[in-house]
Amino acid sequence: MLIHHRSKPSIPSRVVVIGAGGFVGGAIVRQMELDNIPTVGLTRKDVDLLQPDAVDKLKDILQPTDSVVVVSAVAPAKTVTMLMDNLRMVEAVCEALASTPIHHLVYISSDAVYTDDANPVREDSPRAPTTTHGMMHAARELMLELSTQAPVVCLRPTLIYGAADPHNGYGPNRFRRQTKKGEQIQIFGEGEEQRDHVLVDDVARIAALALSHQSEGALNVVTGVSTSFKDIAEIVAKQFDGTVVSQLRPPGPRPHLVHRFFDVTNTCKAFPTFQFTPLQQGLELAKQGES
Amino acid sequence: MNPIIGYAGMTHLGLNSAAASVAHGFETVGFDPASDRITQLQNGVLHINEPGLQDLLTAHVKRLTFSSQVESLKKCHVVYISSDVATDSEGQSDLGGIQDLIATVLPHLSPTAVLVILCQVPPGFTRNIPFSSDRLFYQVETLIFGRAVERAMSPERYIIGRDIPTREIPSSYKIFLEAFHCPILPMQYESAELAKISINCCLVGMISVANTLAELCEHIGADWQEIVPALRLDKRIGPHAYISPGLGVAGGNLERDLATVCRLAGEHGTEASVVQSWLDNSRYRKDWVLRILHSYVLGNTPEVRLGILGLAYKEDTHSTKNSPSLALIECLHDWPIQVYDPVVSSSVLEHPSVVSAKSILDAARGVDVLMIMTPWAEFREVKPVDLQQAMKGRVIIDPFQVLSGSVCTSLGLQYYSLGRPLLA
Fold this sequence. Notes:
The complex is a heterodimer.
Chain A: E1 3-4, E2 14-18, H1 23-34, E3 39-42, H2 54-61, E4 66-70, H3 80-99, E5 104-108, H4 132-147, E6 152-157, E7 159-161, H5 172-180, E8 185-188, E9 194-199, H6 200-213, E10 215-221, E11 226-228, H7 229-240, E12 244-247, H8 265-270, H9 279-290
Parallel strand pairs in A: 2-3, 2-4, 4-5, 5-6, 6-10, 7-9, 8-12
Antiparallel strand pairs in A: 1-10, 9-11
Helix pairs in contact in A: 1-6, 2-3, 3-4, 5-7, 7-9
Chain B: E1 5-8, H1 12-23, E2 28-31, H2 35-42, H3 53-59, E3 64-67, E4 78-81, H4 96-105, E5 114-117, E6 136-139, H5 148-153, E7 158-162, H6 171-178, E8 184-188, H7 189-220, H8 224-232, H9 253-268, H10 273-286, H11 288-298, E9 306-309, H12 324-330, E10 337-340, E11 354-356, H13 360-364, E12 369-372, H14 377-381, H15 384-390, E13 395-397, H16 405-410, E14 414-417, E15 420-423
Parallel strand pairs in B: 1-2, 1-4, 2-3, 4-5, 5-6, 7-8, 9-10, 9-12, 10-11, 12-13, 13-14
Antiparallel strand pairs in B: 6-7, 14-15
Helix pairs in contact in B: 1-3, 7-9, 7-10, 9-10
């Protein structure tokens, strides 16, 4: 459950987004602009968190009244090297925060921090990641929480989709691109695995709400509706007049979980009037954004 | 000669127990250090709501004395400590109050008086009381809010904790206990204290089973109410099993015992993860109505007026401790609400836009959604057609099936209840 240090929302004096050049970071910057919030978007060109000058650069930029969003990551962190790089990146942020007070910190984490058998997943489900990617986010959450006196909120989105997605992982983004190119959508087996997918703009809207309330704690950024990959594929196929085929021999590893569901009660309590974009509508928005 | 019985602490427990004592023919003293409470009781005004209690006290008032003077207990042969033991939000007991009360009472007992701890205390508490062990007892209370009189008048059994279980019970106490014509089970202090906790754990275990499977019913097209009779006919489960789904455990007492088990398991290194799971399940179920409301109404229709029937944590009580209704209302500050409860005033609510309704239909008038959060008997009397005519919207969330789902749906209402899929 989140604690709101501001029960009534107010506009942060300035938001610094570390990782503004990425898929999620870019969406958060756009949301800040929509909300007329003074924002500094830092990309790798501005501050490369793996370089020795990163700490000093951050110290020069950060002010005590800043709300800071940390979203920069080399993701997904599939290898040990990537894991360690990601930790070093946040180590630089932590070092800067250790000597620079700030107002609030938002960390964009992931639902990969949870144990695989949590069902439905809640914010108090054990943080017991089974992947290097999940371990990376779990470790970064802890590192950041320990490095600042400011309230820290960890937002844990599930599978994110949107026009600018760079990963092209199995799911809405790959399906959309396959059909756009005139290819058939290929699903593993019968595509029966159910997952929750969240539109990147909704992640940004939740981040904006957390910033305006100076929230503290952890919140899953999930819609509460899990849909099978087959159903998603069929929605996308219909949008593009494409077709779906079952692929008996998947090109990569099959998703390790059969289904994943989330309990969204804490979102209902933290942001009662927030409404997630329904999947069909979100897929349509992603299609429009990419065309 | 019948012994004189005293109760220190005119709480829900103490008052109902005292009423049962006088009703069984015993002269009884009800002591409480709070003089305003005693004045109220002397004037026949009860500070609690319990079916049948007022009538019972009125019928036997001649044998009952209320006093705020601790010396009034001097003449009693048996004195019960019947104070409330407060709990925090995690179910942890604050034993300071009962310890203070015992310290107040002890110097004023007669040299042969029997002292009985009737409150919920953790194992080990009674043995540590500085009182002669041959006259010191712990007695399990099994009060149920709303059925307290019935339970006090006709207990299923008395579970008695003492230092040496085989030792003869003092005659004054024995005469009193035997007047209730039920089995008397003496055991060690710690066994009796844990017996109380064990009873509650069994109940919560059954409730958790019902909640878990009822939720599954809601998703697979089964109806838990159809399954319940089959379970009750199974001798291993029984006709009185606690297998009705609910909105999590509430009231404070069950939560206290679960917290005590978790604490003791932690202190002694025993495995009790299932108890933590019951607590998790309870917290999850408490938000059932909120989830239904968001999933089926607020997600599509953000501008709504809400009606709520019931504030008490269960029917026939004024208690709102851990009430699911109050927990729900706390999450609905963005919407106007109309509330009605037969006993609990809406003044307990901190909501920016609450209307206190005068009746059931008053609460239903003009609302888009009506939620029946406490299964009060009078709610069962209302006709769904009257609700349908009073409401603006068509959604009824009735977790406890106070209304007939089939009648509601025949009127074009969307009807949500625990343990079965949406009826529409």
